[in-house]
Here is the input.
Amino acid sequence: MNQPAVFSATLGLSPPWQIKDISFSQEEKRMDVVVDFLLGSTVTCSICGMDGKVCSTENELWHHKDFFMFATYLHVRAPIIECPSCGINSVDRPWAAGGSQFVLLDADEELVVR
Here is the structure.
């Protein structure tokens, strides 16, 4: 099994989510994973479960202190959808499901990381 497939399974990703890149720094004990979604995909509304079209995106940075023994950062381009039933909203992030140790960093924390 290749690295993106292993990490996709571990993060709970399924289409339209996909891993675009993974980089490691053994010296810094750091891993960076770029998560994106397939362009042109329909995405399920997190409120009602209907499929909606992507109308915009937001960039997010998620952090986990010890994911595969590395401080891990998920660099995410997340879709915002227009649901025919609920209107415009974001979608579920599978890596943030109950019990997850991934934390969404705010803009100030992102600046410190970079």
Q: What stands out?
A: The two ends are 31 Å apart (CA to CA). The first strand starts at residue 17 and ends at 25. The helical segments are 3-11, 107-113.
